[in-house]
C-alpha cells in the first residue's frame, strides 16, 4: 500500500505537469486519474512485502518507476511533489486527493500509522483530520517515535548491550576506538539512526536485529554479494580481532561497518573464535533472481571455539580440520572437594568430576580451552558462611585469566540451562551424561606434576607426550594420551589397556591402519546434514576395520579389550556383539550409496573440441560421490547435453578456426597476428570462440565465413561484455545453458542423496561416536607400542598386594619372576624418559622402593632426573602403557605428587618459601600410605638451620603416613640427626674421582653424599676462574675456623655502641664472641646506624643512650623507599654476620645497598648473582624478594605494576641460599620498624604445585 502511494504521487510531476504550469494542474490530475490510480490500485493488491510485483505492474504502465527507491532523497522528492500538487490544486481537487488517500488507506490504517512514508506533514494532516491518524502532540516525542523505540530496544537487550560495551572497553586498536565513537547504545546492534545506513526501519537492519536478539552473544556476519559484512558492535570486533579494515574508512559518516571477502571467511572465523567469540553467519539464498528483487537471507550456521562453520561442506571436495571441542565449564565446591562440570554443546554431553583438589582443577583448566567459565556460588562460602574465594588462591588466580560468570541453584542443572540459553537450544534439549566405568581410580595429576613431566607444556621440560608417541602421531592421538595421563583410568581399565597393548605387540597378522576422525566432527556434520563423501568414506573404513578385527582370530581379543577404555572416554556402554552388528549395518548403508573408485560411470566428460578444464570444473565437484544408479536420470541428462554442446561448438566454431588457419598458411607472416581458437573462460564457466583480427577484409565464399557472420559478442552473467576476444552464437549459448542446467540438477541430486544418507546414519549416532573414539584409541595404543618397542621400553607388572621382597625381582630379559608378589615400586634399569637408549647414551638406575628415600648428591648429579623419571614411569604404568625400563613393578597408587620448584608470587604477597610451604601443606594433607611423593630440595627457600629442622619434621610426618617417595636435599645436617623414623633410608647419587677431581656418575647408590661439586659446576658453566678461585679460598678459610660468630637477631632492639664502631645485635645484652681467634674483634669497623639516621633527618628519634628500639623509632605513613635504606642495609649486614657469611671483619664493609631509581635498571654486574631486593608498591607497602636474575625480575614487577616509576633497593650476596635467608629475615624484622611488608604467611595453603611457566597476575 505504501509503495502504491509513493508511486502514484511521485510519478504525477514526471508526467509533464510542470511543463504546462500550475494553472493546468487540476485538469491534468483529472485526465491522468485513470492511469495513476489504476497503478495505485494494482499496488494496493500486492501490499505485504511483494514489492517486486508492484514494480512490475508500474513498469508496464510507466517507465518512471526508477524513482521508486528506498532512501531519504526519494522520500523528500515524494514529499515535495505531493505538497506541490496539494498546494497548487483547487479546493475540489484537494478534496478529491484526500478522498483517494482515505479510500486507499481505509483497509490498512494501522499499517499507515507506523510507516515512514506517511509521517510527512501532508499525509499526517489528511489522515488525522479524518480520524485515521491522531495528531502528534509535539515534535519532541511523537507516538510513532515512542513505539519505534520500544520496537528497537527491549528491556532484555540492556544486559547484552552492557556486555558488548565491556568487550569494546577491552579493544586497543585506534581504528576500533574511532569506530566506537559512532556507536549508540539504544539498540542491540549499536547503530546510530542519524548516520547513513543506520535506520532501524531498513529491511536488512530489521533482519539483523531480529537475529541479534536470538543470538545476543554472537558476532553477526551477513553475506552481501561477494562479502560477509558486520555492522555496529560486530564490525568493531571484526576490526579488532580479525585484522580487517573498516568499510568506508574510520571517519565515515555512516555506521561502523566491516567485512571480509568470501575466500577469507574461514580465516576471519578462526581469528574470532580463537579470541573466544562465537559467530553467527547469515547467508543469501543463491540462484537466479529478477533484477531489483530483494534477496532472502537465512541463518546458515554458527562458529564457536572448537566448533567450526560447516555450511556448504557437503558439496565441497575438502576435508575441514576440526579442532578439539571446547566445553562450557562450571566449577562448584562440596564437602567432598571441588566439582568440575564440562558441557560439550557439539556432543550434547555433560561430564561431572567430583572430589577434585584445587590443583587438579587447575591442571584440567590449563589442559584445554573453555568457551565460557561459570563459577558456582558455593566457591565463595560454605554452608557455615566461611569465605573460600578471593585473592591468594591458586584456582582464583587461574580463573582471573578467563572470562567468568557466577551462577546459583543446582550446579549441574543450572549450568545446562545456561548452555541452552547460550546456544539458543530448546529448553527440553537433552544432554547425555558421561558415566565412567566403576572401580577405584587414582586421583588426577596436580599442576606441578603434569608440568614437570611435560604433559602440560612447560619451558625447559621434555614432553612425555612427544616421547611416548612417534613424531607422526595425529593431534587426536596426542589429545587422547594427554587426557589419559592427566587422570589415569580406573585400575580395571588400565589393566585392559595394558593387555590390549601386549596383544598388539605379539600378534603376527596384519593390523588395520585405523582411521582417526573426531567424534565431535562426525556428530556435527551428521546432525547438520553437511557430511560429504570424504566423511562417509571414513565412517565406512572405521566400520570395516572393526568388522575385520572381530573376524580376525588374533585381533578379536584386542577388540574385546578396547571396549572398556572406549566406555571410559565416551560414557557409552555398548557390548561387543551389538557393536559388530551395528558396524555391519553402517558399512552396508554407506557402501550402497557411495561410488567405488575406478567406476567408469564416474569419469568426467571429455570432448575433442572442448577444453578438458571446462568439464573438470563443472563435473568434478559431484562426480565420484554416489553410485550412478541413484541418479540415473540426472547423469544421463548431463551426458546428453554435453554431446549437444560439443556438436554446437564443432558446427559453430570449428569452421572458423580452420578458415583462419587457411588464411595464415598462404599469406605468411603478414597475417600471423590473427588468432582463432575454441577457449574456456574460467570466470564465466563458458566455452566460447576466442579470436583476434580473424575477420577477413573482403568477404568471399570460403568455408567458415558464414559462421563468422553469425558470431556475436559474449556477455557474462551480469550482462556485461566478457571481452573483445570472446565470441559466441545462439546455438552454443542455448546448448551451454542446457548443459549447465543439467549439471546443476545432477549436483543438487548428489547433495540430496548425501543428505538422505545423513538422515539414515543419524539414528545410529551413539554407535558412530563409539567407533570413532575406539578407532582413535586403537591407533594411539598401536603407535605407542611401536615407539615403545623401538625405545626398548617394557610393560610393567601392575600389583595390588602389600608385600614384595627384593629377591622376588630378578632380571630375566623383560620379565619379572614371582608374579604373585604384588605391591612395591620396582624399576629395573630405569632411564630418563626423554633419553633414547637406541640413539644416545643414558645411565640406567635400578630402584626398589617400598619406603621413603632421603636422596643426597652433588649439583648436576641427576637427583631431579631421578625424580622425573620415577614419576613418568609411575604415571605411564598406572595408565596401562609401557615404561622406560628393562623390567618394572608398579603398585596401585592412589596419587602421584611431584614437587620440583617454587617461585615467589608478589601479586599474592608470597615469597618463594611461602609458596613452598603452601605446597608442602597440600602434600602432608593429602598423602596416604598408597601415595607416591617426590620432592626436590625441600626447604631450600629459607635459612639453612631452620629449613633443616622443617625438613626433618616433614620427613618424620611422611614416615608416619607410610607413603613411598623420594626427598632430595642439600641440607646435609639431616644426615646426622636422630629422627623418629622407621621407613626412611638414605640414598645418594654417586661420584667418582677422575684426575684428582670428583665427577658425578649419575648412578643411584646406598648411603649419603656430602659433596656438592658446586665449584666444579661453576667452572663447567663458564663462571670466571678468578671468581671460582676466590670462592674456594673463602670456603677453605671458613672450614678451618675454630669458632663462629653467634649473634642472635633481636626482633625489637638495635644497640649502637658508644664508640660508634661496633653494631651489636642481641636481646638486650652485648655478646660478641671471639672471631677467628682475633682479640681485637670488638674494634671491627661497622656502619654507624646513628650517623646514617641523622643524615636522613631522623636525629630527633635517637635516644641519648644510643639505643634505638622499634617502639621508639617508627616511620610515618608517607615514608619512601630511600627512607628505609639504612635499616634495610643494617638488617642485611647483621644477618650476614650471624650466618658467618664474611670470613674477616673487614668483609662486612663490602656489603653495599644500592638504589635503582625510576626508569633505571641494575648494572650488568648483577647478572648471575643472587640478590635480595625490596620494592615499594603504589599503595605504599613494601615487598621483599630474591632472585638470580635481578634485571628480569625488575622488568617483570614493573610490567605487573604498569609503572616504570617503581624504585628498588638491592644487595648482592654470594649464593641463593644466603639470599633466601636474608629474604626471610627482612620479612620478619622490617615490620618492627613500622615498615609494612606485604609478604605474609600462607594461611590458606592454596598454592601447591603452581606451574613455573605461568606468570603471576598483576598487583
From TrEMBL:
Transmembrane intervals: none
SUPFAM superfamilies per record: DNA repair protein MutS, domain I, GIY-YIG endonuclease, P-loop containing nucleoside triphosphate hydrolases
Domain of life of the source: Eukaryota
Alphabetically ordered keywords of this record: ATP-binding, DNA damage, DNA-binding, Nucleotide-binding
Pfam families, per the entry: MutS_I (PF01624), MutS_V (PF00488)
InterPro entries per the UniProt record, alphabetical: DNA_mismatch_repair_MutS-lik_N (IPR007695), DNA_mismatch_repair_MutS_C (IPR000432), DNA_mismatch_repair_MutS_N (IPR016151), GIY-YIG_endonuc_sf (IPR035901), MtDNA_mismatch_repair_MutS (IPR053276), P-loop_NTPase (IPR027417)
Domain DNA mismatch repair proteins mutS family: 931-947
PANTHER family reported for this sequence: MUTL PROTEIN ISOFORM 1
Protein name, per record: DNA mismatch repair proteins mutS family domain-containing protein
Organism annotation: Sphagnum jensenii
Organism phylogeny: Eukaryota, Viridiplantae, Streptophyta, Embryophyta, Bryophyta
